[in-house]
Amino acid sequence: MGTTIFTIMSALATEYEAINLSQGFPDFMPDEKLIDLVHQKMLAGNNQYPPMRGCSELLMVLAEKIKNVYELEVDPLQEITITSGGCEAIYTAITTLVHPGDEVIILEPAYDLYRPAVLLNKGVPVVHQLQGPDFARDWSAIRALITDRTRLIIINTPHNPIGKIFGPDDLLALQQIVAETGIYVLSDEVYEHITFGARHESVLRYPDLYRNSFACYSFGKTFHATGWRIGYCVAPPHLTAEFRKAHQYTVFTVFKPAQLAIAEYMADPSTYLQLPEFFEKKKNQLEQGMTKSRYRALDSQGSYFQLYDYSEISNALDTEFVKTMTIEHGVAAIPLSVFYTDPPADQKLIRLCFGKKEETLTSALERLIAI
Ligand code: GLN
Q: How far apart are the CA of 144 and the centre of ligand 1, in A?
Protein backbone atom coordinates (compact mmCIF):
# COMPACT_ATOMS: atom_id res chain seq x y z
CA MET A 1 0.00 0.00 0.00
CA GLY A 2 1.19 3.52 -0.80
CA THR A 3 0.63 6.73 1.18
CA THR A 4 -2.74 8.42 0.65
CA ILE A 5 -2.75 11.48 -1.59
CA PHE A 6 -4.36 13.48 1.25
CA THR A 7 -1.33 12.99 3.48
CA ILE A 8 1.06 13.77 0.61
CA MET A 9 -0.67 16.98 -0.50
CA SER A 10 -1.36 18.35 2.98
CA ALA A 11 2.31 17.79 3.91
CA LEU A 12 3.42 19.57 0.72
CA ALA A 13 1.01 22.44 1.47
CA THR A 14 2.48 22.82 4.96
CA GLU A 15 6.08 22.60 3.69
CA TYR A 16 5.54 25.36 1.10
CA GLU A 17 3.03 27.35 3.18
CA ALA A 18 0.45 26.98 0.42
CA ILE A 19 -3.30 27.52 0.88
CA ASN A 20 -4.63 24.01 1.37
CA LEU A 21 -7.64 23.27 -0.86
CA SER A 22 -6.50 19.65 -1.16
CA GLN A 23 -7.53 17.49 1.81
CA GLY A 24 -11.24 17.70 2.56
CA PHE A 25 -11.56 19.34 5.95
CA PRO A 26 -12.94 22.72 7.08
CA ASP A 27 -10.51 25.39 8.28
CA PHE A 28 -13.23 26.85 10.53
CA MET A 29 -14.44 25.78 13.97
CA PRO A 30 -17.33 23.45 14.77
CA ASP A 31 -20.24 25.19 16.55
CA GLU A 32 -19.09 26.40 20.00
CA LYS A 33 -22.27 24.94 21.47
CA LEU A 34 -21.18 21.46 20.36
CA ILE A 35 -17.69 21.96 21.83
CA ASP A 36 -19.23 23.11 25.13
CA LEU A 37 -21.44 20.04 25.19
CA VAL A 38 -18.43 17.70 24.83
CA HIS A 39 -16.78 19.47 27.77
CA GLN A 40 -19.95 19.27 29.86
CA LYS A 41 -20.30 15.55 29.17
CA MET A 42 -16.72 14.97 30.36
CA LEU A 43 -17.25 17.03 33.52
CA ALA A 44 -20.45 15.07 34.18
CA GLY A 45 -18.38 11.88 34.43
CA ASN A 46 -18.84 10.25 31.03
CA ASN A 47 -15.23 9.16 30.69
CA GLN A 48 -15.27 5.35 30.67
CA TYR A 49 -16.15 2.80 27.97
CA PRO A 50 -19.52 3.36 26.32
CA PRO A 51 -21.41 0.32 24.94
CA MET A 52 -19.65 -1.33 21.99
CA ARG A 53 -22.50 -0.50 19.58
CA GLY A 54 -22.54 3.20 20.70
CA CYS A 55 -24.44 5.23 23.31
CA SER A 56 -28.18 4.59 23.16
CA GLU A 57 -28.89 8.35 23.42
CA LEU A 58 -27.13 8.87 20.09
CA LEU A 59 -28.60 5.75 18.46
CA MET A 60 -32.12 6.97 19.33
CA VAL A 61 -31.57 10.44 17.87
CA LEU A 62 -30.14 8.87 14.69
CA ALA A 63 -33.13 6.53 14.30
CA GLU A 64 -35.41 9.56 14.62
CA LYS A 65 -33.37 11.44 11.99
CA ILE A 66 -33.46 8.44 9.61
CA LYS A 67 -37.24 8.29 9.98
CA ASN A 68 -37.67 12.01 9.34
CA VAL A 69 -35.21 12.38 6.50
CA TYR A 70 -35.31 8.98 4.73
CA GLU A 71 -38.73 7.66 5.83
CA LEU A 72 -37.22 4.42 7.10
CA GLU A 73 -37.93 2.91 10.52
CA VAL A 74 -34.81 1.30 11.97
CA ASP A 75 -34.31 -0.35 15.32
CA PRO A 76 -31.68 1.93 16.91
CA LEU A 77 -30.16 -0.81 19.06
CA GLN A 78 -29.92 -3.39 16.27
CA GLU A 79 -29.31 -1.44 13.08
CA ILE A 80 -26.95 1.43 13.93
CA THR A 81 -23.33 1.20 15.11
CA ILE A 82 -21.20 4.21 16.07
CA THR A 83 -17.77 4.02 14.43
CA SER A 84 -14.43 5.75 14.58
CA GLY A 85 -15.23 8.01 11.60
CA GLY A 86 -16.67 7.19 8.18
CA CYS A 87 -13.43 5.40 7.28
CA GLU A 88 -13.79 2.79 10.02
CA ALA A 89 -17.42 2.22 9.05
CA ILE A 90 -16.38 1.57 5.43
CA TYR A 91 -13.37 -0.56 6.35
CA THR A 92 -15.36 -2.65 8.84
CA ALA A 93 -18.21 -3.21 6.36
CA ILE A 94 -15.68 -4.46 3.79
CA THR A 95 -14.01 -6.72 6.38
CA THR A 96 -17.43 -8.04 7.41
CA LEU A 97 -18.35 -9.08 3.88
CA VAL A 98 -15.24 -9.89 1.88
CA HIS A 99 -13.65 -13.34 2.00
CA PRO A 100 -10.50 -14.25 0.05
CA GLY A 101 -11.24 -14.34 -3.67
CA ASP A 102 -14.54 -12.44 -3.43
CA GLU A 103 -15.05 -9.88 -6.18
CA VAL A 104 -16.00 -6.32 -5.31
CA ILE A 105 -17.31 -3.88 -7.92
CA ILE A 106 -15.90 -0.37 -7.58
CA LEU A 107 -16.94 2.60 -9.72
CA GLU A 108 -13.81 4.64 -10.48
CA PRO A 109 -12.81 7.37 -9.81
CA ALA A 110 -13.28 6.08 -6.27
CA TYR A 111 -12.36 7.33 -2.82
CA ASP A 112 -8.91 5.92 -2.16
CA LEU A 113 -9.87 3.72 0.80
CA TYR A 114 -12.08 1.21 -1.04
CA ARG A 115 -9.52 -0.60 -3.17
CA PRO A 116 -6.84 -1.04 -0.46
CA ALA A 117 -9.48 -2.22 2.03
CA VAL A 118 -10.69 -4.86 -0.45
CA LEU A 119 -7.11 -5.97 -1.16
CA LEU A 120 -6.19 -6.16 2.56
CA ASN A 121 -9.14 -8.53 2.97
CA LYS A 122 -7.83 -10.58 0.01
CA GLY A 123 -10.75 -9.59 -2.19
CA VAL A 124 -10.54 -8.83 -5.91
CA PRO A 125 -11.51 -5.31 -7.05
CA VAL A 126 -13.47 -5.23 -10.34
CA VAL A 127 -13.61 -1.75 -11.87
CA HIS A 128 -16.34 0.06 -13.80
CA GLN A 129 -14.64 3.18 -15.10
CA LEU A 130 -16.36 6.57 -15.36
CA GLN A 131 -15.01 9.43 -17.45
CA GLY A 132 -15.42 13.17 -17.24
CA PRO A 133 -16.98 15.54 -17.79
CA ASP A 134 -20.30 13.81 -17.03
CA PHE A 135 -19.03 10.57 -15.39
CA ALA A 136 -22.14 8.73 -16.62
CA ARG A 137 -22.66 5.25 -15.16
CA ASP A 138 -23.86 2.39 -17.31
CA TRP A 139 -25.89 0.04 -15.12
CA SER A 140 -26.18 -2.67 -17.79
CA ALA A 141 -22.38 -2.70 -18.09
CA ILE A 142 -22.16 -2.91 -14.29
CA ARG A 143 -24.68 -5.80 -14.31
CA ALA A 144 -22.46 -7.58 -16.88
CA LEU A 145 -19.49 -7.47 -14.44
CA ILE A 146 -21.30 -9.67 -11.92
CA THR A 147 -20.09 -13.27 -11.63
CA ASP A 148 -20.77 -15.99 -9.08
CA ARG A 149 -17.80 -14.62 -7.10
CA THR A 150 -19.25 -11.10 -6.82
CA ARG A 151 -19.94 -10.28 -3.19
CA LEU A 152 -20.29 -6.53 -3.03
CA ILE A 153 -20.67 -3.28 -4.94
CA ILE A 154 -19.44 0.00 -3.43
CA ILE A 155 -21.28 3.19 -4.29
CA ASN A 156 -20.68 6.78 -3.15
CA THR A 157 -23.21 9.59 -3.33
CA PRO A 158 -22.65 12.57 -3.09
CA HIS A 159 -19.40 11.56 -4.70
CA ASN A 160 -15.88 12.28 -3.56
CA PRO A 161 -13.91 13.34 -5.64
CA ILE A 162 -16.22 14.18 -8.57
CA GLY A 163 -19.06 15.97 -6.71
CA LYS A 164 -21.87 14.15 -8.56
CA ILE A 165 -24.97 12.68 -6.95
CA PHE A 166 -27.05 9.64 -7.82
CA GLY A 167 -30.67 10.14 -8.89
CA PRO A 168 -33.65 7.84 -8.25
CA ASP A 169 -32.92 6.03 -11.56
CA ASP A 170 -29.48 4.98 -10.29
CA LEU A 171 -30.89 3.63 -7.04
CA LEU A 172 -33.71 1.79 -8.85
CA ALA A 173 -31.24 0.22 -11.31
CA LEU A 174 -29.07 -0.89 -8.41
CA GLN A 175 -32.09 -2.23 -6.52
CA GLN A 176 -32.98 -4.31 -9.58
CA ILE A 177 -29.43 -5.73 -9.78
CA VAL A 178 -29.48 -6.61 -6.08
CA ALA A 179 -32.87 -8.31 -6.45
CA GLU A 180 -31.56 -10.41 -9.36
CA THR A 181 -28.15 -11.34 -7.94
CA GLY A 182 -28.28 -11.04 -4.14
CA ILE A 183 -25.03 -9.07 -3.95
CA TYR A 184 -24.42 -6.67 -1.06
CA VAL A 185 -24.10 -2.90 -1.26
CA LEU A 186 -21.77 -0.59 0.62
CA SER A 187 -23.08 2.94 0.29
CA ASP A 188 -20.68 5.69 1.30
CA GLU A 189 -22.96 8.63 2.10
CA VAL A 190 -20.69 10.76 4.26
CA TYR A 191 -21.75 13.93 2.37
CA GLU A 192 -25.47 13.09 2.77
CA HIS A 193 -26.35 16.60 3.97
CA ILE A 194 -24.35 18.50 1.35
CA THR A 195 -26.33 18.53 -1.92
CA PHE A 196 -27.12 21.45 -4.19
CA GLY A 197 -30.54 21.36 -5.81
CA ALA A 198 -31.62 17.72 -5.86
CA ARG A 199 -32.22 15.73 -2.66
CA HIS A 200 -29.81 13.03 -1.52
CA GLU A 201 -30.89 9.55 -2.66
CA SER A 202 -29.88 7.27 0.20
CA VAL A 203 -30.10 3.47 0.04
CA LEU A 204 -32.20 3.97 3.19
CA ARG A 205 -35.00 5.40 1.02
CA TYR A 206 -35.31 2.07 -0.87
CA PRO A 207 -36.39 -0.66 1.59
CA ASP A 208 -35.65 -3.55 -0.81
CA LEU A 209 -32.18 -2.20 -1.44
CA TYR A 210 -31.57 -1.47 2.24
CA ARG A 211 -32.10 -5.17 3.06
CA ASN A 212 -28.68 -5.92 1.49
CA SER A 213 -26.91 -2.67 2.36
CA PHE A 214 -24.45 -1.07 4.74
CA ALA A 215 -24.78 2.74 4.69
CA CYS A 216 -21.85 4.73 6.13
CA TYR A 217 -21.96 8.26 7.57
CA SER A 218 -19.67 10.84 9.16
CA PHE A 219 -20.25 13.36 11.94
CA GLY A 220 -16.87 14.87 11.07
CA LYS A 221 -18.17 15.98 7.65
CA THR A 222 -21.57 17.05 8.99
CA PHE A 223 -20.43 18.99 12.06
CA HIS A 224 -17.07 20.35 10.79
CA ALA A 225 -15.01 18.17 13.14
CA THR A 226 -13.10 15.69 10.98
CA GLY A 227 -10.45 15.29 13.71
CA TRP A 228 -12.95 13.84 16.18
CA ARG A 229 -13.14 10.62 14.16
CA ILE A 230 -16.77 9.73 14.71
CA GLY A 231 -19.29 8.28 12.28
CA TYR A 232 -21.81 5.43 12.03
CA CYS A 233 -23.00 2.53 9.96
CA VAL A 234 -26.66 1.65 9.34
CA ALA A 235 -27.50 -1.91 8.23
CA PRO A 236 -30.35 -4.40 8.81
CA PRO A 237 -30.10 -6.41 12.08
CA HIS A 238 -28.53 -9.58 10.59
CA LEU A 239 -25.84 -7.52 8.82
CA THR A 240 -25.25 -5.23 11.81
CA ALA A 241 -24.70 -8.30 14.01
CA GLU A 242 -21.88 -9.41 11.68
CA PHE A 243 -20.51 -5.85 11.37
CA ARG A 244 -20.19 -5.58 15.15
CA LYS A 245 -18.12 -8.76 15.33
CA ALA A 246 -15.42 -6.99 13.31
CA HIS A 247 -15.96 -3.58 14.96
CA GLN A 248 -15.56 -4.96 18.50
CA TYR A 249 -12.06 -6.26 17.76
CA THR A 250 -10.79 -3.19 15.94
CA VAL A 251 -11.78 -0.04 17.85
CA PHE A 252 -14.28 -1.68 20.28
CA THR A 253 -15.85 1.66 21.30
CA VAL A 254 -15.78 5.32 20.29
CA PHE A 255 -15.06 8.48 22.38
CA LYS A 256 -18.06 8.71 24.69
CA PRO A 257 -18.22 12.48 25.46
CA ALA A 258 -18.60 13.29 21.74
CA GLN A 259 -21.33 10.66 21.30
CA LEU A 260 -23.42 12.16 24.09
CA ALA A 261 -22.72 15.73 22.98
CA ILE A 262 -23.73 15.01 19.38
CA ALA A 263 -26.91 13.24 20.57
CA GLU A 264 -28.00 16.40 22.39
CA TYR A 265 -26.82 18.78 19.67
CA MET A 266 -28.45 17.08 16.68
CA ALA A 267 -31.81 16.66 18.39
CA ASP A 268 -32.31 20.03 16.67
CA PRO A 269 -32.48 19.08 12.94
CA SER A 270 -31.47 22.57 11.82
CA THR A 271 -27.90 21.66 12.84
CA TYR A 272 -27.66 19.52 9.70
CA LEU A 273 -30.53 20.73 7.52
CA GLN A 274 -28.91 24.15 6.99
CA LEU A 275 -25.77 22.64 5.49
CA PRO A 276 -26.72 22.84 1.77
CA GLU A 277 -27.25 26.60 2.03
CA PHE A 278 -24.07 27.04 4.07
CA PHE A 279 -21.87 25.16 1.61
CA GLU A 280 -23.59 26.39 -1.56
CA LYS A 281 -22.41 29.93 -0.74
CA LYS A 282 -18.86 28.65 -0.56
CA LYS A 283 -19.20 26.68 -3.78
CA ASN A 284 -20.59 29.77 -5.55
CA GLN A 285 -17.77 31.95 -4.23
CA LEU A 286 -15.15 29.59 -5.66
CA GLU A 287 -16.99 28.85 -8.90
CA GLN A 288 -17.80 32.49 -9.69
CA GLY A 289 -14.28 33.62 -8.80
CA MET A 290 -12.80 30.91 -11.01
CA THR A 291 -14.65 32.21 -14.10
CA LYS A 292 -11.90 34.88 -14.15
CA SER A 293 -9.20 32.17 -14.26
CA ARG A 294 -8.07 29.79 -16.99
CA TYR A 295 -9.53 26.83 -15.07
CA ARG A 296 -12.90 25.45 -16.19
CA ALA A 297 -15.34 24.25 -13.52
CA LEU A 298 -17.22 20.96 -13.81
CA ASP A 299 -20.66 20.88 -12.22
CA SER A 300 -20.66 20.00 -8.51
CA GLN A 301 -24.00 18.65 -7.29
CA GLY A 302 -22.91 17.65 -3.79
CA SER A 303 -20.02 17.09 -1.31
CA TYR A 304 -17.61 19.95 -0.63
CA PHE A 305 -15.53 19.28 -3.70
CA GLN A 306 -15.49 20.57 -7.24
CA LEU A 307 -13.43 19.40 -10.21
CA TYR A 308 -11.58 21.91 -12.40
CA ASP A 309 -10.12 21.35 -15.87
CA TYR A 310 -6.67 22.93 -16.30
CA SER A 311 -6.02 21.99 -19.94
CA GLU A 312 -5.84 25.68 -20.97
CA ILE A 313 -2.98 26.17 -18.52
CA SER A 314 -0.78 23.10 -18.82
CA ASN A 315 -0.23 19.79 -20.58
CA ALA A 316 1.41 18.26 -17.53
CA LEU A 317 0.02 15.17 -15.79
CA ASP A 318 -2.30 16.15 -12.94
CA THR A 319 0.07 14.58 -10.36
CA GLU A 320 2.84 16.93 -11.58
CA PHE A 321 0.57 19.92 -12.08
CA VAL A 322 -0.66 19.89 -8.44
CA LYS A 323 2.97 19.99 -7.29
CA THR A 324 3.65 23.05 -9.47
CA MET A 325 0.45 24.66 -8.17
CA THR A 326 1.52 24.08 -4.56
CA ILE A 327 5.20 24.96 -4.83
CA GLU A 328 5.11 27.81 -7.38
CA HIS A 329 1.60 29.24 -7.05
CA GLY A 330 0.81 28.53 -3.38
CA VAL A 331 -2.44 26.56 -3.68
CA ALA A 332 -2.64 22.82 -2.97
CA ALA A 333 -5.15 20.63 -4.87
CA ILE A 334 -5.77 16.92 -5.40
CA PRO A 335 -5.11 15.28 -8.79
CA LEU A 336 -8.04 13.21 -10.08
CA SER A 337 -5.95 10.42 -11.63
CA VAL A 338 -4.99 8.94 -8.25
CA PHE A 339 -8.60 7.81 -7.81
CA TYR A 340 -8.30 5.46 -10.81
CA THR A 341 -6.47 2.13 -11.11
CA ASP A 342 -5.78 2.94 -14.80
CA PRO A 343 -6.39 6.66 -15.24
CA PRO A 344 -7.76 7.84 -18.61
CA ALA A 345 -4.84 9.45 -20.49
CA ASP A 346 -6.47 12.66 -21.63
CA GLN A 347 -8.16 13.94 -18.45
CA LYS A 348 -6.66 17.13 -17.01
CA LEU A 349 -8.67 17.51 -13.82
CA ILE A 350 -7.94 18.56 -10.25
CA ARG A 351 -10.19 18.53 -7.18
CA LEU A 352 -10.57 21.64 -5.03
CA CYS A 353 -12.20 21.66 -1.57
CA PHE A 354 -14.45 24.68 -1.05
CA GLY A 355 -15.29 23.77 2.57
CA LYS A 356 -13.09 26.65 3.75
CA LYS A 357 -13.46 30.14 5.29
CA GLU A 358 -14.52 32.94 2.95
CA GLU A 359 -11.15 34.66 3.37
CA THR A 360 -9.28 31.43 2.59
CA LEU A 361 -11.22 31.08 -0.67
CA THR A 362 -10.64 34.78 -1.48
CA SER A 363 -6.86 34.43 -1.06
CA ALA A 364 -6.80 31.15 -2.98
CA LEU A 365 -8.76 32.75 -5.83
CA GLU A 366 -6.26 35.62 -6.15
CA ARG A 367 -3.51 33.08 -6.65
CA LEU A 368 -5.50 30.76 -8.93
CA ILE A 369 -6.61 33.62 -11.20
CA ALA A 370 -3.00 34.75 -11.60
CA ILE A 371 -1.87 31.37 -12.97
N1 GLN B 1 -12.09 12.57 3.03
C2 GLN B 1 -11.06 13.56 2.92
C3 GLN B 1 -10.85 13.94 1.47
O4 GLN B 1 -11.37 13.35 0.60
C5 GLN B 1 -9.72 13.13 3.44
C6 GLN B 1 -9.66 12.00 4.38
C7 GLN B 1 -8.25 11.54 4.59
O8 GLN B 1 -7.34 12.35 4.61
N9 GLN B 1 -8.06 10.27 4.70
O10 GLN B 1 -10.11 14.83 1.20
A: 31
